[in-house]
Amino acid sequence: MKKKLMKFFIKIKKYNYKKYIHENILFLTTVISLLINATLVRFFTVGNYFEIKPLLADLAITIFLCSFAYLFRPKKRINYYMTLSVFLTFICLANSVYYTFYTSFISVSLILTSLQISEVGDAVVENVLQLKDFVLLIQPFIVLFVYRNLKRSQYFGKEKLGYGRKIMIPNLIFAFFLFLLFFSTLTGVELSRLNNQWNREFLIMKVGVYTYQINDIVKSLEPRIHAFFGYEEVAREVADYYKNNQLEHKTNKYTNIFKGKNIITIHAESIQTFAMDLEFNDEEVTPNLNKLAREGLHFTNFYSQVGVGTSSDSEFTLNTSLMPSSIGTVFVSYWDREYITIPKLLKEQDYYSFSMHGNNGTFWNRLAMHKQLGYNRYYHKADFVIDEKIGLGLSDKSFFRQAVPKIKNIADKYKNFYGTMIMLTNHTPFSEVEAYGEFPVDMKIEVTNEEDITELVSVPYMEGTKLGNYLKATHYADEALGQFIQDLDNEGLLENTVIIIYGDHDARLPKKDYIKLYNYDPYNDEVIDKDDEMYVPVDYYTYELNRKVPFIIWTKDKKIKKEVDLVMGMYDILPTLGNMFGFHSPYQLGTDIFSVKENVVVFPNGNWLTNKLYYNNQKEEYLLLEDTVITQEYIDKYIEHADNVLTISNYIIMYDYIRRQKETEMLMQEYKE
Ligand code: GP9
Ligand code: MN
Fold first, then answer.
1. Contact 92/213 with Cβ under 8 angstroms?
2. Which atom of ligand 1 sits closest to the CA of residue 366?
3. Residue to probe by mutation, ligand 1, list 306, 363, 381, most atoms within 8 Å of CB
4. What is the whole-number distance in angstroms between the Cα of residue 257 and the centre of ligand 1?
5. Which of 145, 161, 206, 263 sits CB 3.0–4.6 Å from 418 for a disulfide?
6. Ligand 1 atom closest to 505 (CA)
7. Which residues are bridge partners to 602 per DSSP?
8. Which domains does the chain have, with CATH numbers?
9. CB atoms closer than 10 angstroms to residue 202
10. Which residue puts its alpha carbon closest to atom 6 of ligand 1?
11. Host H or E run for residue 205
12. Helix, strand, coil distribution of the chain in percent, nearest 5
């Protein structure tokens, strides 16, 4: 054995590396350049680059994939290398762009969703495709460049370059061993996260972009395959979860208070709570929203829980009290599953449900999915006259104006209704500033000139920034909303109606703009120094907590005026409204906010929030929000809860649990009879 090993090492020592490199130039160029691209993606996104684990994984995968080129004759290999290069570069580029837009990574089942992104058109080009992304595009050109030079120097004619399995197999074996080495270094946590796949940032950090993407393909296919096999175990876990976690429904002062009333839910596109607190030159950004908040039930710590499906995820979570799916988007990938939803639950009380939106009916697959959610009708772009277009479609003002007579008709025809109004104008990139109308976001300061005369001078402040433009768009949306409430009132539609307003998700505004907003020095038109004691830092937690969105329940009689500061998530809406309107879903994952003393908001990436702390699951650390002592048990309890909520929700969605459970129950019933 010892002798054999010695021989092996002598062989390695004697090996003619120069010859090897010379004979495999194109192979090595492709492997190395693809490795660099994968490393760059990590560097551009999660910020780590020199990490052994992902490097090993990326190297193993690139060698593995490039090895197949040896099945072709030397001259023909370029076609294979180029196809592979373009494909993997596309994966790298798509992930980098996607990260800029969603702070997450691409999922294969989201390829359909990327069609939606292309509809967001200039939003991507203006805000997402950054200079750094173009660096990734160089890779295929490097391979082509090296090939051209080799060709010119008669490399393919002169040299005796081998091909076939004899060369391919040792490379494959080497790649396999590298991958095994990488795999052996993975910790239990890393393996379990690979299995769950929802902590995408963590995965890219630890396993690299290629392994992540392959794992994603496997995970995307898995539920479809498992749906035939592993269902029994899944069904048992889901049933156990609800048996152990279902809160007994307690009645409270809000129980059934709105029974028999109509509901108009306003999906306020990209409106964030921080905008409600802002004033520019004594003008509120959102005077109408603020008035409704003062007069109604105002939930001041409300968070949206969207994944990559943004608007559509909010519509899904609100209507089902389930979390967005961790792979793909429910509206696109799992629209054909059965769900218990608000429209379906209200149907049992004879409600007519509708939704309205000024964009294409197919956007986010709403035409199919709204029907599946139980809406009787989805009014979209084709149902409106597009007399004023801003951004993605019909302007909010025109949308609401045209919606009122439609709602009036519905109100005249049906006993009760539940309507969802999806706003649109306040959508990234917030670039149609002129269309939003006049709302200066400058600052007026008093300046004394040389003649000792004091005058008011305007300094730019937020003018020209993305956040500034966003506030102009938000002001427009607020005006549209105020007018809508007024028009509904004029038609007598507010007498028996509860208005519900929610921000669907944050606007993904740049951190640097928040820094300017909170740290502006108007006299020098710049941001104050970091060392200044007045400096307000904007770190990870400030940013995440600032993603808070409004949630307001309002009635014209102002009888339910109250501020609720318990943290609350989109998944708590169904149970909370259920308590007020008299319905209940056995599969709800949130809680009626008036039935609990403490609440937790679970985010799709595994982060969670209570009134006491914000837990960062990516880094396994937290920010304390109250002056209190936190025990490890407290943290462990909620980590487990977050994990359960995400797992159970995914099971229900992917395995079509509700439909299958119903079918089983029906079969049992038949059997009994
Ligand atoms: C599109 C609109 C915006 O119709 O709802 O969707 P988003 O980009 O916010 O998910
Ligand atoms: Mn949205």
1. no
2. 4
3. 363
4. 33
5. 263
6. 9
7. 608
8. 2-219 (no CATH), 261-591 (3.40.720.10)
9. 22
10. 311
11. helix 200-226
12. 55, 10, 35
d(CA 543, CA 538): 6
Mean pLDDT of the chain: 91
Name residue, tokens 């029906």: 666
Q: Are the beta carbons of 608 and 602 closer than 8 angstroms? A: yes
DSSP lists the bridge partners of residue 616 as 621
Q: What average pLDDT score do residues 579-585 get?
A: 97
CA of 422 to the centre of ligand 1 (A): 9
Q: What is the mean pLDDT of residues 295-320?
A: 96
Tell me the pLDDT tens digit for each residue of 484-494: 999 999 999 99
**Contact between 245 and 127 (Cβ < 8 Å):** no
Q: How far apart, in whole angstroms, are the C-alpha atoms of residue 109 and residue 131?
A: 27
Dist. CA 278–CA 257, nearest whole Å: 33
pLDDT in tens, 594-625: 999 999 999 999 999 999 999 999 889 999 99
Q: Which residue, 191, 215, 207, is CA-closest to 59?
A: 207
* Centroid of ligand 1 to alpha carbon of 271 (angstroms): 12
Token pair 């307001």 in the structure block, residue: 552
Looking at the CA of 269, which ligand is closest? Answer: 2
User: Ligand 1 mean position to 499 CA, how many Å?
Assistant: 21
Sign of CA dihedral 358, 359, 363, 364: negative
Whether residue 60 contacts residue 178, with contact meaning beta carbons closer than 8 Å, is answered with: yes
Whether the pLDDT of residue 117 is over 50: the answer is no
Strand, coil or helix: what is 558? coil
pLDDT in tens, 317-358: 999 999 999 877 898 788 889 999 999 999 999 999 999 999
Distances in Å between the Cα of 395 and the Cα atoms of 116, 125, 265, 383, 392 are: 19, 22, 18, 14, 9
Cα–Cα dist 76/613, whole Å: 59
Residue closest by Cα to atom 5 of ligand 1: 311
Q: Are strands 562-564 and 297-299 parallel, antiparallel or unpaired?
A: parallel
Question: Which ligand is nearest to the Cα of residue 502, counting in written order?
Answer: 2
The CA 311 to ligand 1 mean position distance, Å, reads: 5
Residue type, 74: P
Residue 520, SS3 per DSSP: strand
Quote the DSSP letter at residue 76. G
Helix axis angle, 200-226 relative to 52-67, nearest 10°? 50
Cβ 424 vs Cβ 357: under 8 Å? yes
3-state SS assignment for residue 404: helix
Q: In this structure, what token pair is assigned to residue 2?
A: 């010892």
Q: What is the pLDDT of residues 359-373, one digit of tens each?
A: 988 788 898 899 999
Q: Computed from CA positions of residues 403, 404, 405, 406, in that sequence, does the dihedral angle turn out positive or negative?
A: positive
Q: How far is the centre of ligand 1, averaged over its atoms, from the C-alpha of 554 (Å)?
A: 25
- Residues 504 and 304: beta-carbon distance below 8 Å: yes
Task: Classify residue 226 as exposed, middle or buried by CB count within 10 Å of its CB (0-12, 13-18, 19+).
Answer: middle
List residues near ligand 1 (CB under 6 A): 120, 310-311, 357, 359, 363, 392, 422, 424, 427
Task: Using DSSP bridges, classify how beta strands 416-422 and 262-268 pair: parallel, antiparallel or unpaired.
Answer: parallel
Cα 343 versus chain centre, distance: 24
The three-state secondary structure class of 527 is strand
Name the 3-class secondary structure at 448: strand
Q: Look-up: residue for tokens 């028009």?
A: 487
pTM of the model: 0.79
Distance CA 519, CA 513 (A): 10
Q: How far is CA 191 from the centre of its chain?
A: 23
Mutate to test the pocket of ligand 1, among 392, 425, 502 (most ligand atoms within 8 A of CB): 392
CA distance 73 to 156: 10
